[in-house]
Amino acid sequence: MDRIDQALYQRLQPIIDAQVFLKHLGVQIVELQPGRCEISLDYDQRWSQQDGFFHGGIVGTLADNSAGMAGASTMPEGRNCLTAEYKLNFIAPAKGETLIARANVIKAGRTLTVAESNIFIKSGSEERQVATALATLISV
Amino acid sequence: MDRIDQALYQRLQPIIDAQVFLKHLGVQIVELQPGRCEISLDYDQRWSQQDGFFHGGIVGTLADNSAGMAGASTMPEGRNCLTAEYKLNFIAPAKGETLIARANVIKAGRTLTVAESNIFIKSGSEERQVATALATLISV
Amino acid sequence: MDRIDQALYQRLQPIIDAQVFLKHLGVQIVELQPGRCEISLDYDQRWSQQDGFFHGGIVGTLADNSAGMAGASTMPEGRNCLTAEYKLNFIAPAKGETLIARANVIKAGRTLTVAESNIFIKSGSEERQVATALATLISV
Amino acid sequence: MDRIDQALYQRLQPIIDAQVFLKHLGVQIVELQPGRCEISLDYDQRWSQQDGFFHGGIVGTLADNSAGMAGASTMPEGRNCLTAEYKLNFIAPAKGETLIARANVIKAGRTLTVAESNIFIKSGSEERQVATALATLISV
Q1: Is there a contact between A20 and B64 if contact means CB atoms under 8 Å apart?
Q2: What is the ipTM of this complex?
């Protein structure tokens, strides 16, 4: 199955492209379906913390943005959403080559949408969860 | 009053210096006292989102790290703390020249420490709150 | 200073009165001002957990409701607010005679309002913080 | 399959029984397996808010306690866990006959355990999600 819904992609890719910081990092869309979004980021030493793992700020960035895009994917054309708030639990060190955030919408509402994002690290062929987040998005 | 407690600074500065991502961003320590930490980051277009304001991922990074350093400042020498989790509310766009995160410890415990961080944007001589966060830190 | 703004009280008291569970508990309004609300609950063994202290569910109830009322106090007549979400950190056991929740609005918005609530236990003449919460309210 | 692990039940039931507030409400254990717990509460007008639905404080109580018991179920005998913090999103009104909280452990750690709880309302033969929560538990 194609993991990218092309119509959605054409609608949302410009939003990612316009986010200079995400471009600077090199965040990529891996999956995009109504209510679901996966983004990833390859390791670079610039994104690291004191032990050489992905920095928590990068983990938070991917959690927040994947949830936001999952939310945006459920909105009618011309609408977008902003993150009103999120909560993130770190559960393991993000040591590996690729950081992956998989978000899905739990409840899509007219004004508020709730989404979760689970963040994983890929190291060789292994994947391990490093964080989990719960976000509230507001339609604008 | 000197806003930097020099003994604390010498203990914590290496931790910041070792966080390559924070160095890459250019995060600076403005205040450091037992239970209190202020850090700041000057605007650069690379840290921006679609409207040219500071990206939410940068706001989250400063919230998380300021809370962590406020927590670390209350720990005995040789101990550090990690962020177990945090929750962040965005309350206004981060449009301005300098992003400032002011964190203080609410409860310092043996194992868990709770800290809050309030994030402000400075634009000219004005300051405006852009986010508020509540974090749980674990002593390691 | 009178801690109760009578006009606000007359507008919000019916909302509390209509919440049967709060009446069942015996929650009382101690302070009510625009953007600020304090409620309290006297100890009863029915509200206790295994050690005889106030149960966490009661602490959460007061945190949520005090934040909601602080939010409601900033809204124009005819509008009310619902809790969209909250996050609560427990920081000490709620051992004492009276549980007190003090909430204040951090940011009042047209659609979303952010409020914090700090929860204290009064034991004799001493007061101790037992929890802190951050809530997002939606205007309805 | 028996939904109750009897060995676990005998270990955890006393903890529930000792929580007077949960007994007062009438909370029941529906499922208990390592890393998983479901509890429920039948509607009573005493637990209602202004529209006659389950009060948010009751929803929070079940979210917190189900997560705590899921966490406790993964701990070695003689250990228990306390809720350090939780975050709860309300997503629909809790209008119905039975409130059900289903919690599962996301990450069981030596000191900290992360669990989620999804809360549903049963109305006739239909079930609908009313809230979702993410909790951090500390082993004691």
Answers
A1: no
A2: 0.96
